[in-house]
Amino acid sequence: MQVHSFLHSDTETYTHVLADVKQQVCAIIDPVLDFDAKSGRTRTTSVDEVVEFVKDHGWELVYIIETHAHADHISAAIHVKETLGGQLVIGQHITEVQKIFKQIFNFDTSFRTDASQFDILTDDGDTLALGGITITAMYVPGHTRADMAYLATDDEKTVVFVGDTLFAPDVGTARCDFPGGDAKTLYQSIAKLLELPEDTMMYLCHDYPSKGRKYCPTTTVAAQKLGNIHVKDGINEAEFVEMRERRDANLEMPRLIIPAVQVNIDAGHFPKPEDNGTRYLKVPINLLGE
């Protein structure tokens, strides 16, 4: 098993490539599309580095895995799929998120809330085969209702891709104030992750390093239990919930939440072009951010 991590500097997001190098197969986890919110222009410059990396190694892309419908970046899953193939994977509870945001964006009846835009829907305990690697889905809601972590195991080691649940120990944990989020649920989900063996490597979806620390895509269960500023050993559920809700009440909405969510719940598809050939996104006025 090999894991290679690529930092998208604009959104501080990590895209990971998980590979069985012997059988020449891989998965790409949480790919990011470049998006300039000022101009509304998209580019694939960053994700193409990942695509070229896979091509250069001669690996077959089997899965494109989304840990959840992200609110801080737009998924590049469609570009990756068109370029490399692969099946698009997300947790089955994405249907709940689709229903919530269909109402928020007032999408018409043509918008599907059955998750049929995706190829594979996972539930807690489901497994995917990637050569000699077994990928096991872990349902870890709280940040949203649909978050999944993915545990990858082969004969040599086990790693876990935690999505937006835990960040580096000096950063803490994910916010829970989006529609459908819940701090108590997140605490319980994190507890499941921290039950993994202490030497388990955790691959982060984001890193927001404190001053003087370089970006790093990984941490361990042991490091989280020892030093996570929000949920280290000794912090109970009530303390976490009080801290998380107080902190979330003062956070601004993510810079890209409005374009990101409406695209990501549709598996990375932008709306169809209108009669002038241009695609448009919607902006709800005075609805989010309270």
UniProtKB/TrEMBL annotation:
Highest taxon of source: Bacteria
PANTHER family (alphabetical): PERSULFIDE DIOXYGENASE ETHE1, PERSULFIDE DIOXYGENASE ETHE1, MITOCHONDRIAL
InterPro entries, alphabetized: Metallo-B-lactamas (IPR001279), Mito_Persulfide_Diox (IPR051682), POD-like_MBL-fold (IPR044528), RibonucZ/Hydroxyglut_hydro (IPR036866)
GO biological process terms held by the UniProt record: glutathione metabolic process; hydrogen sulfide metabolic process
Pfam families the UniProt entry points to: Lactamase_B
CDD domains, per the entry: POD-like_MBL-fold (cd07724)
Lineage: Bacteria, Pseudomonadati, Pseudomonadota, Gammaproteobacteria, Moraxellales
Gene Ontology molecular function terms on file: metal ion binding; sulfur dioxygenase activity
Protein name: Probable metallo-beta-lactamase superfamily protein
Stretches assigned to the Metallo-beta-lactamase domain: 12-206
Keywords: Metal-binding
